[in-house]
Amino acid sequence: MKKTVKFIIRHFILLFLSVIWLIPILWLFVTSFSGYKGINTSHFFPETWTLDNYAQLFFRSDSIVQYNRWFINTLVIAIFSCLISTILVLMVSYTMSKLRFAGRKGLMSFSIILNMFPGVLSMIAIYFILKTIGLTNSHLGMIIVYSAGAGLGYLICKGFMDTISVSLSEAARLEGASEAKIFWSVIIPLSKPIIVYTVINAFLAPWGDFVFAKLMLNSGVATDWTVAIGLFNMLGRSMINKYFSVFCAGGVIIAIPISILFVIMQKFYVEGITGGSVKG
Amino acid sequence: MKKALNTLGNYFKNFGIAFVKGDIWVKLSAVLMGAGYFARKQVINGIIMCLVEVLFAVLCIGYAAPNLAKFGTLGTVQFEQVFDPLTMTSTVNDYDNSFLILLNSIISLFIIFVFIVFYISNMKAVYRLQQKKENGEHINNFREDVRTMFNEKFHITLLTLPAIGIIIMNILPILVLVAVAFTNYDQQHMPPNALFTWVGWSNFKNLFTSSVTVTFGYSFKKVLVWTLEWAVLATFTTYIGGILMAKFINDKKTKLPKLWRTLFIIAIAVPQFVTLLLVRNFFADSGIVNTFCNSIGFTDFLKNIGLVPSNLSYIPFLTNPGWAKVMIIIINIWIGIPYQMLVATGVLMNIPEDQIESARIDGANPLQIFIKITMPYVLFVTGPSLITDFVKNINNFNVIYLLTQDVFVTSDQLLANSNAKEVDLLVTWLFRLTNEYYNYKMASVIGIIVFIICAAFTLITFTRTIKGDKEEEFQ
Amino acid sequence: MKKKVLATLLATAMVAGCLAGCGNSDGGAASTPATDEAAPAEDTAPAEDAAPAEDAAPAEDTADSADASGSPIDTLIANTTGTVTMTVWASEEDQDLTTKLLDDFKAAYPDVTFDITLGAESESTAKDTILTDVEAAADVFAFADDQINELVQAGALQEVAAHYTYDVAAENASGAVEAATVDGKLYAYPMTADNGYFMFYDSSVFTEDDVQSLEKMVEVADAAGKKIAMDISNGWYIYAFFQGAGLELTLNDDGMTNTCTWNAAGGTDVAQSILDLTASNVFVDMGDEDMATQIAEGNVVACVNGTWRAETAAEAWGDNYAATKLPTFNVAGKDCQMSSYSGYKLVGVNPHSANLGWAMLLAEFLTNEDAQTARFEARGLGPANLAAASSDAVQSNPAIAALAAQAAYATPQRVGGNFWSPAETLGQILASGNPDGTDLQELLDTTVEGITAPVE
Lengths: 280, 475, 456
Hints:
The structure holds three protein chains of three kinds. By secondary structure, chain B is an all-alpha fold. Chain B has helices at about 1-20, 25-30, 35-40, 45-70, 100-135, 140-150, 155-180, 200-210, 215-250, 255-270, 270-280, 290-295, 300-305, 320-350, 355-360, 365-395, 395-405, 415, 425-435, 440-465, 470-475; strands at about 80-85, 90.
């Protein structure tokens, strides 16, 4: 009897917590179906239900809402920057974890410190560097912004590779494999969880960043934007009362694929992080 | 420190030795970099070195020299434009753009620095070749040299590309901004229309002195204190919360742990800027939470106990300094716990079961087990990442900016005079200084300070993991 | 092709000389470039010389055909080879109208190929995007007149040194022209004259007498259990109280620092009066977005705001929608009329534009009488153009009538950047009832010190 009560209390607490965690998400979801375009401040659920917000996103592109274009832009940027960053991260973490060379530790300390510099500040300098090579207002420029510095974020990945036994690469080395071959055919296959982790993180960055994107894509032309700038723009002072529920619909649309990605990759994600964070 | 100086000393000493003891070819390499290779029949290497040298010379004359010539003043020719109303065109003079001069000069200096390092190592390499020849050792041909790039020198191959990216995206911008901290680059001196120039340490002095009109010193202290408070609170609340939640969900007595975990994960799968902007409207002064609290009388209750000023008809969730700080922490818990829970789940899975088992046999209750065994283990494992999180929180731009921008108005007049707010972190403050007030000089100074603080915290923890030989332990 | 260009250039040279004369004899043709250089030429060119020149040209006896052969516009068309690529920024709400105007513009110059990109950039935040990188900003952009000082200082505005299709200074309201002028030079093309604020109210709650005094309005609203909203924690609005009570805030000659007398005698009375008004909890501090929702929800029955909220208010209150000048408020027993900033929206041309000539023509096109009339018809925005503003439709628009009534008490906005943060904070403190109980004089002293702080 006491056990059942405890059992019920335990699950009741969990239920209560999940409700707290999901209320804003639920609000996002229901508001995306609201017939009223502004913020509904007196009712949680919309008074009139409609699919119009989604229709506006997908079928009524104008100079403010270009959701299809935003989605494609962001997808392209995300795919390329995630490819490049993953490759860069793997290169650095393998070097730092498995190779021994003069100045390795110095380089590691240096890179960790370098990573501490607040990104929002170096933004303006990066903007002008890219402007001199003519890459502002281009998606190639955005890919560079998101991926070029990725090498610095190698710590977790390196930590994971540290846990891969050294005997495996020793064995390969005895068989006469080159370092390049060991990297490619021994270490990479074993690092699957951390690769998935790195890929997800790199893939997600362009979907959530509006600060860099807003600075770099400053032509004011909606078709150039990413999803994040487009949605952020909808909540501007003069727009919020006409676009709030459209914003919610846009939020739901990006949340769906990302949630699915997360749920599927959960296992890898957990293994990746913890494998890496064991060593920091 | 002494060791570093020694290394540096040896570095130049070896260069000297190479130059003095080298034969005529090595000495010739000091002028024509490929000479030493030609002498040892490494023709391709020789050609490459000569090409590098020529390229550098061209860069120096065409790019570095004109920019570095103006580096001392950062330009003297002001932008001027004359409009001809009849042809409807305008002519612009050959003006100086201080920022571009600064940027290009720093890139030039960087290139020169890299070349010098390259030059010195070239001399050493050439001397080593000479020694090899004298000792009758095998000298690699070009193909063999290439092969070493995938074996002994594989690290160079792997690091080149990431290094180029990091130089462009991190090192050069940082150097530029460190330089900006010593100039008067602000809204009154903005290129291309105006010039800016060097002012020495005066921006740093401004940050540490306070007068009635220049309140940067006052604001800096306040913002710094809140930044640290926030970083500590935000890190620990989410950390502890994440562990507790992971423990709770992974407990054998919990049914369907995967379902529960997924429910919480959904909350972080929605991009942060969406949830934060949403939550901001959720808790707005006339938002839905306030409507609800008002209708159940909660607002009046808070008024009665003095938590809400009596002249307000709403709870100032994000508009009153005290309330806003608490709300920011709470909302951050909401965002941060699911993530920490994921991490903790993984860590808890690896916990040594036998210890817990033996403790249980000894009669320890679950709480004791948690405090005595689980926590120390988790702390041990995640200690370093705790520091990373702490530093990340010092620089946590999104949460603060998205929740308070356009909503929060400071009621501290001295803060207002230097464009800061009670809820600002150093990063959000410097972001606003650049983005809204174009005060790049002060923002750079603040950026450098943030950098120093974070670097100090990181060094303390990471030197422990890096310097020690723990890396090999797991291998 | 070369020959044609040469011929045009020659024709330009010839006609340019006599054009001034023609313009003179015609009583000022709209197409005359009224430049500083041209002005003296106009005076010196003897009318006698001009007249025969006009006669000599066969079948060219109208001013129209005269400038067809040699005006700067023709020179420009002749000199334009290839596609003219330009970017235009207009606010999100103005996109449809601007798209239409751009098509008309292209149609007006059929010989030239245009590639004009229209971007969305709100007038109120245009400055933020432009100043980050002036060279990357649009060729032609719309902005609110409060940003003109900073934009001129950053070299982001091309001086309107000459006009080609209509006389910018003469055809627009003098207040609008003044707002577009810095140091005696005209820097922008007035687009609307409605960016100031006034009082919206629900006439089912307030009578016309009620809205004369803010205290009376508070009383009435209190009885009805409703609220009156104003964005008090905002320098732009709080100015209304202090200026209304006769205290001053002006920009110094350096164009950067301010002079402010808010802490002078009577200042504390104004502060006290704001405290009294807000203490009732009927007159509330509320941001623009919140106001829109609260009006729609029916909680707010009167608000101080601008024409951009007219639609919201008209929708919510229907036939009871009314607007008027700002009320009086009570300062130490005396009724003072609330002042306000008169606001204008302007169109500017980027001096870094690669097609400066076309950018200027486009700016003129976007702000001429027809465009301003179209803008009023499409969005109810008050024209700055005198002819467009005199139409019956404009005159009978309640919001614009209210603005006109308020105009007598409004001042153009000339203020340095250091004003905003301290004033915003002052508003916030007063609106929240001075929670720390700071001495009012001390409060104002600190505010004024911040506002008048030197700019390095």
